[in-house]
Amino acid sequence: MKFTLMPIAAALLAALTSTTVFAADTQDSNNVDADVIAAETQPVDSQAAVEMLTDGWEVHGYGSMNYRSNSDFQSFDSELGKPDYRTAGTSGKSANQVELTVKKKTAFSNGVKSDFVVRAEYGNGDSYYYSSPGAEKTNTVAQFEVKEAYVALSNLPYLGEGTEIWAGRRYFNRAAGILTGEFWKQSSGMGAGFETTLANENKMGIALVSADPEAGHGINWENPDFQPARPADGDRTTVHSLDLYYYNVKALGGSFDFDAKIMKRADEKLTGDQAKDGYGFAVTYNRDYYGLDGWTQTALAYGHGMASNRGVNFGQWSGDWQKNSKSWFATSYGVLNINDRWQMGSELTYWAPQDMKWGATSDGKDKVTRFIAAFRPTYKVNNNFRVEMTGSYAMEKVNGNNWGREDNATNFYSLELAPVFTVNADYFGRPQIKPYITWVSTSDEAAAGAIGITDANKKDQVVFGIQAEIWF
């Protein structure tokens, strides 16, 4: 299967914009006076015609400061299997993760609005504890850097109200599990897009997003094998995703979101089984908590080739899959409001990638099945204090050599207890300071090592920590 993304994107963008312009130009045309039409076609001074009504700034952000120790009273780098749907809990490895988003917002008298968005991040993925005189600046991992920078223009008169165009670097259309924290849907990279609103509620759009798998890979002179050198410009393997989406379709007591992505890589000189293209789709159902008070998101996704990472998860990592790889993905997560005191978050996730080269088989046709069920009930003691409990069970099944494990199916367990000091004891109340104790366990010693359990010949471990978290 071969795709030529740029002509497809250009054609679809032209079709969408021309349809919007046609609708705007023809609306109520029979009721417009000829003198009005003549007046509108006269040249005007655009500087005098458009007045800036509002001009301001918004600042948002996130912070997670996770101070934790294993049973040896050491800081450590493992996330205890959380990124692979093996456990759930306060197990992110970032010691000091800080994220700031600055938005320049402007509105004009003709209805046009503009946004300039810059998101910067520091410390994501760096587990070390630095002291004030520490040579933190010599570390090349997880430094302060810009993650998003784009401009969006909405309600342009020739495109119509409810439309938006954007260009730049962006995390686009993201969704993540509530307890695993894994982003299963996103397009991360450089790109541009068009979006319009239909019937005042449905959102339809198209975007082209691109990323270089080699980006950021320079030579580490102290350990030259740690990161590969940048390739010559002609050898870049730039990957592209053409995103088509239609959101907020009301049905069955909730709403549906539809995503489709067509992916392709620029390097046609690849040999072997590495994927050169792929496609994926996802359907998301949004509603209350299965008929009760609260909310849920339930999604089903499929991906093939480059889109095998849950179908609609695109970024630098999309160049690592094989041409015959494929996967089914299903997830359902949300928060139940039980009463004035009790709330509960939950997540059920299933992922089954096939025909990868992950080292389980000699022929490169590895098949992995992962499932996790996680629950987090919380009890509100008063407005500024709640008690939080988290439990999860996960199963991972592998064909072939089972990655050195005794059985081809491994079980993972985690339990966590945390008193939470907060300014708002709601489930999502922040800022907060959360002391916690976490127990993780597996059914196999080889799997224990894979998730970062450091005690030799043990299948379980206890972690103590205090996390400070805020978003605004």
Automatic annotation (TrEMBL):
How does the entry describe its membrane topology?
Multi-pass membrane protein
Transport found in the keyword field: yes
| This protein's GO CC annotations | cell outer membrane; pore complex
User: What GO terms in the biological process aspect are recorded for it?
Assistant: monoatomic ion transport; polysaccharide transport
Q: Which molecular function terms from Gene Ontology are attached? A: carbohydrate transmembrane transporter activity; porin activity
Mind listing the UniProt keywords for this protein, alphabetically?
Answer: Cell outer membrane, Ion transport, Membrane, Porin, Signal, Transmembrane, Transmembrane beta strand, Transport
Task: Tell me where the signal peptide lies.
Answer: 1-23
Q: Which InterPro entries match?
A: G_neg_Bact_CarbUptk_Porin (IPR050286), Porin_LamB (IPR003192), Porin_LamB_sf (IPR036998)
**Cell compartment(s), UniProt:** Cell outer membrane
Q: Which family does it belong to?
A: Belongs to the porin LamB (TC 1.B.3) family.
| Descriptive protein name | Maltoporin
Native organism: Photobacterium carnosum
